[in-house]
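pls read this stuff:
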Amino acid sequence: MKLNRAEIRKKVAMEAASLIYFGIEKEFKQAKIKAANALGVKFLPANIEVAKEIDKIADEHEGQARQERLVKMRQEALKVMKILEKYDSILVGSVWRGTIHRESDIDIIVFHHKPKGVLEALGKSALKIIQTQNVATTEKGKKRSSFHIFLESPTREKFEIIVRSPEEHLRKEKCDIYGDTITGLDVKELEKLLKESSTKRFVPF
C-alpha cells in the first residue's frame, strides 16, 4: 500500500529521531536528510515532529528513571546557577524543557562581558572544566559571538555554560526545534519549580 505524505513524514521523523537518540547524528537537519535518504524519499518532517519521536523513544527506553534523572539534573543546574547567580544565569535546553534523554547535558546561559570572570567563579567550585571555545554565528546578516564552557559535576553530569554579552539579555530568541520563544528559568523560577512541580514540561505540545 502506498503511503501518503503524512505517513512518509512520520516514518522519516521516526528514523531521524532514532539516529539522534542513539548518538549516530547530533544535528536535526543532518539526521532528517540521512533518514530520508535511507527510506528513499524526499519529504522532510519539521524539527518538532522529530522531537516528538525522540520523546517517545526516550520514554520507551528509560521509563520512570527518565523523570527521576530530570529532577536530579534540575537540582544540579540550580547549584551551578547559584554559583553564577550574579551573571543572571538562565537554564535552557532539554533540562528546562523537561525533555531530557540519556545523552542530554545541562545548558545554562549567563550574561557577562568577560568570560574570565565566569571561569574564575567556576574554578572555585568542585566542577571540572573540560573545554572552552569561542563560537561565532551569523543571523540575518548580523554577527554574534559567545564563549562556551564545558563542565562535569562531581555526579558526572555534563554542563555547557554559554557566556553572552549583557546586551543580549533582553533579546528574544526563537527555538529552531519547537518554534516558540526560548524563555528558560532563572534561579528563583527553578527553585519554585523544584518545590511545586519538579517534572513540569515546557513544550508546545
The longest strand covers residues 128-139.
